[in-house]
Design goal:
This protein has helices spanning about 5-15, 20-25, 30-35, 45-55, 60; strands at about 5, 65. The chain is mainly α and about 70 residues long. Strands 1-2 form a two-stranded antiparallel ribbon. The chain starts with a strand and ends in a 5-residue tail after the last strand.
């Protein structure tokens, strides 16, 4: 999939664990893990908003489009 999830990068920059982020965004650990590993097929804007609020970042810091036709 050409959409890359950089949640692990932003969590490392903010020195935040998956458990801590899960508690702060009120999302289950398993759903957040699916998102972090790039296995998610979709994300709600409200979830993205919560993650960006907690990590103090922009949606583009979390999601990246990579053209795979190179």
């Amino acid at each position: 999939m050409p959409i890359i999830v950089n949640l692990d990068v932003m969590m490392a920059k903010r020195k935040m664990s998956l458990n801590e982020l899960s508690e702060k965004v009120e999302l289950t650990l398993s759903n957040l893990s699916i998102l972090k590993t790039g296995k998610a097929k979709a994300i709600r804007f409200s979830t993205l908003e919560s993650i960006c609020k907690v990590l103090d970042c922009q949606p583009g810091d979390i999601l990246e489009y990579v053209n795979d036709k190179k």
